[in-house]
Specification:
Blueprint lengths: L6 H13 L8 E2 L4 H6 L4 E2 L3 E5 L6 H14 L4 E5 L4 H17 L6 H9 L8 H4 L6 H11 L3 E5 L7 H15 L4 E5 L13 H19 L3 E5 L20 H7 L2 E7 H4 L2 H5 L2 H6 L3 E9 L6 E8 L4 E2 L4 E2 L13
Parallel strand pairs: 3-7, 3-8, 4-5, 4-6, 6-7
Antiparallel strand pairs: 1-2, 8-9, 9-10, 10-11, 10-12
Length: 332
């Protein structure tokens, strides 16, 4: 809340919470991505805004949805503001994530879940029946059913879903479930700004400031997916924070900035020229760079293996050992 308070009153309130067995610090939502949580000191924090950027098609939504799944599967609630995907597509992807966890490489893919939902074979039966013969398919349906009530999907619209709309929905979800949710906005540049300025930079500034204020006022973590500008997605160039659309406001307001890059595109040229076998494996990994981190170390490069056929990344990951570059001659 806006207003003055003495440090003594803050100390008193903290002591009261501690005496009641409650936390006096920010709440933490683990992302489920092991090395990322380690550098974030546990995960995403209430009152903070995290940005997730990357080139188109590299898996920003995939990572965000998997993170959402991890949060709700651990007992938290979450709300996903989807400006580009309908609820059934979200369901397909999350079913595939669960199937991959249960059945490994033999589990049904996103395409198989889509075909089952389309019921194009003319047969009768629910989703569990249709997937009973697959490795992990029926188990995935049961898993999603177990935590599905804790994940809310808001089909958002770029002309009507504003920060004020998002705040109202968050308040509703909190009242319904009795706990603050993780808020994921996919994506930031599409949030409506009814009375915003004429330029995109001004509108993005309004949105990012609004989302940061929402995180503080509602005491929730907010994760916003952000798009890159044209210069940032050029082949052979490493995407950085300053390549995100509205970068100046984004970098200033955010508490954490995660930027994704395809490993093959950003690894130094000598790794490609002198080790051809290993070079091909680089295509299977995405690099997630922790470019800003108010809770710990930044300029950390982590890598996660792509499992896109099942809508996920391997959550264990590791630090990148190879040299990365901002720009290089593209080598095929």
């Amino acid at each position: 809340m806006e207003g003055l308070s003495t440090l003594s009153s803050v100390l008193h309130e903290a002591n009261c919470k501690l005496e009641q067995g409650r936390s006096a610090a920010a709440s933490v939502w683990p992302t489920g991505f092991t090395p990322l949580d380690a550098y974030l000191n546990g995960g995403l924090r209430s009152g903070e805004l995290t940005l997730l950027g990357g080139p188109q098609g590299l898996g920003k939504t995939t990572l965000a949805l998997q993170l959402l799944r991890n949060v709700v599967a651990s007992g938290h609630t979450a709300v996903y503001f989807s400006f580009e995907h309908d609820a059934v597509l979200v369901l397909e992807r999350l079913l595939a994530v669960e199937a991959g966890l249960a059945g490994g490489i033999e589990a049904p893919t996103i395409r198989q879940f889509r075909e089952a939902l389309e019921a194009a074979d003319g047969q009768l039966g629910g989703l569990e029946d249709r997937l009973a013969a697959t490795e992990g398919g029926a188990e995935a349906v049961l898993a999603v059913r177990a935590w599905g009530d804790r994940l809310m999907i808001h089909r958002s619209n770029g002309t009507t879903t504003s920060v004020q709309t998002i705040a109202a929905v968050v308040q509703e979800v909190r009242a319904t479930h009795g706990q603050p949710p993780l808020v994921v906005v996919d994506y930031l540049q599409k949030v409506a700004v009814p009375l915003g300025g004429p330029s995109e930079e001004e509108r993005i500034t309004d949105v990012v400031q609004g989302l940061k204020d929402l995180a503080l006022a509602a005491d929730v973590p907010v994760l916003a997916v952000v798009a890159a500008d044209k210069e940032g997605i050029r082949a052979g160039r490493r995407l950085r924070t300053h390549h995100l659309r509205g970068a100046s406001a984004l970098a200033y307001e955010a508490d954490v900035v995660l930027v994704m890059n395809d490993k093959f595109n950003v690894v130094a040229r000598h790794h490609l020229v002198y080790d051809i076998t290993n070079a091909e494996s680089f295509r299977n990994f995405v690099v997630v760079s922790l470019e800003k981190n108010r809770n710990g170390l930044d300029h950390i490069d982590l890598q996660f293996r792509k499992r896109f056929e099942r809508g996920r990344f391997d959550p264990e990951g590791s630090a990148v050992s190879e040299q990365l570059v901002d720009e290089r001659v593209f080598v095929e």
